[in-house]
Amino acid sequence: MFDPSSFGTMAEIVGESPAFRCLQSLVERVAPTDHPLLVCGPTGSGKEVVARQVHARSRSPEQPFVDLNCGAIPENLIESELFGHARGAFTGATSQRPGYFQLVGRGTLFLDEIGELPLALQPRLLRVLETRTFRPIGSSESLRFEGRVVAATHRDLLAMVREGSFREDLYYRLAVFVIEVPGLDQRREDIPALVRHFAARQPRPLSFSAEALERLTRAAWPGHVRQLRNLIDRLGVLALSAQIGVEALEPFLAADGAARAGQDSLADALLALEGDDKLLVAENLLIDRALQRSGGNKSAAAQLLGVGRKVVERRLKSREARSHEAETLLEEGRQRVEAAEFRQAIPLLRRCLEKLPRRDDVRALQFEAYRLLGVSLRSVNGWLCAEACACYEAALKVGEGLCGSTELASMQFGIWSTQLMTLELGRARATAQDMLQRARDLGSPAALDEAHLAMVNTLFWLGDCAEALACLARGGLLQGGRGGEHNGLQGFDLSALALTFEGLAAFQLGAFAQARQALQRLLLRVGEDNPHAFNRALALQGAAWLACLFEDMEHLGPLATDLESLSEAHGFTFYRGIGQVFRGCHIGSLGTFDEAERFMLEGYRQHMLSHGGRLFHSFQAWQRGELLLRAGRPDDCERLLADALDMALEHQERAYLGELLATKARARWAQDDLDGAEQELRSALSTALALGSVSARIAAATQLARLLQQTRRPEQAAELLSRALRGVAPDAPSPGLARALRLLEELGTRP
């Protein structure tokens, strides 16, 4: 049992059950650390008590314990409460005010009901946890957060992540350690000790018979420890005698159980209603039901509700005003999306959904708001954004039986993109095939183009570049399709994506002239005269990618810088990460290896991986491995690529499998393991041949030929390299092909 004398308000921590001992052991182990902590458990189970126990056993128990209930403070005030504000930051800010992040010092900030924290504030909390700094509202100075965050919730945060009402990255940042506080139903053997503990705190100490304790142990406690404590408090005041037997206990227990059970059931049903503002949803539900029972008579409905007729009329007018406001917000959000101002569109569309009532007559507006919000969130946070996925799924649910196949096909595109970015490539291919069939049945050119591009994208990452090019040809999308800015249902430039994957697939297949043509066409689309910021980012991504493969550093540097700055300016976080990776490739070519690695790691881990970039793992690992080799760090290179190969093989991501194998072999060569390097280069060559990847085949064969030349086997080297180059057109060669041809001449063999 915890020693209650040491912890003040922690005197309520009482128990000896196995579940409680497990909780105690976990608290003792995690309390001395500085990591964030998530305390979960049903309402009334003692989550705040556990948080105070963690603070009392922490490294700084003398520091403040500051608690904030995220659901008890109005949304427009909670930001100021957390971060503080500078003088003049907003109307009424007549003086500087420190927020809880500052007041807590090196102590513990307890965020109770973290699931109620507004979505708009969640990125700011995430940033505090990641950087340990924060900036008060209206201040230009960043302050250091020295404390520890302990969050608590009775809600299922993972379910909220899937629904899009809680950020996935914030969840995993908070859940470094998770403490599950058991409900009273999981620790019934502790009830007698808890009863005695609460009884001793009454104005007149109570004593319970063995039968009364047994009855309390068998009772249902939906309110858990809090409900038990409240019952003992009532007994302390109202019981006729301090000696409590079953007869004296039963009336209190029956009344408490019946009232509490009924109220809890009703409250739980209301909390399960859809919508963020549960109070408003419950109010609308009551008004609608009262009008239904009274046949639309407002006076009769008001009587049922226990209010005056004018109250009902005011609420109905307010509802109409909210619907009109929602329509206005939706139109403003649509205009922002069409102008690629996705970050500005997000709050408008969120407010629109908050304003819209949950009624059948506004389902079309709900569908459009969810669709546009999904597009905006995906554009800003990447296609792996949990909230964007939830919006697509919500739109599909709302739109079934209401919207046409075109709109539903658009939602399916969003779901496909999530499968792709999570490397569920088999499922992504099946979804793309469904999209193709739906688009053919629909007869929509835009939907068909999107479906073809979804299939091409998936095939490329599966390593089937020949089929990817064939799919582009079947869809009429080679050389960008119909030309110009060809926008699909998602509102972005399909032609830029088609050119990108045409160039990438052609490069892998050794059709270097075709790949260079795709690069040149993309370069024409990246200028500042491109009016659509997101489409320009897509073109910059494709051009930088191909420039990197062609080792065209003259173009790569400016393209990468433009992509990074454009994405930062417009909030395209995912594409900012891609720009940083390519910028690292350019800096590395100049010999500045440490700075290059920093850019690549920050771009991939902080911006791409967090926002949907897992798909690019093998490409960035290959490029970073090349960088480590040039920096003279072959051991680090081998470890990096071994991990990358494991992931690629696990998820069947084969686009750059041959390159990973060849670069890893070179790392072993640099460690003077010539036999191991030769074996791995032969494996890389076999893999490239099996996949039909000509560029990887040339790279592996060139390195293997150099190794054979070094180990005095020039004839074998020349024969192997000649076979590897057979059938490869020498026009517009890639740098890898040029190196192979030079080596062939050096070996005394004509190409």
Automatic annotation (TrEMBL):
SMART domains: AAA. Residues 13-237 form the Sigma-54 factor interaction domain. One of its GO terms (biological process) is regulation of DNA-templated transcription. It comes from the Bacteria. It comes from Azotobacter beijerinckii. InterPro entries: AAA+_ATPase (IPR003593), AAA_lid_NorR (IPR058031), Homeodomain-like_sf (IPR009057), HTH_Fis (IPR002197), P-loop_NTPase (IPR027417), Sigma_54_int (IPR002078), TPR-like_helical_dom_sf (IPR011990). Gene3D superfamilies: 1.10.8.60, Homeodomain-like (1.10.10.60), P-loop containing nucleotide triphosphate hydrolases (3.40.50.300), Tetratricopeptide repeat domain (1.25.40.10). This is Regulatory protein, Fis family. Keywords: ATP-binding, DNA-binding, Nucleotide-binding, Transcription, Transcription regulation. One of its GO terms (molecular function) is ATP binding.
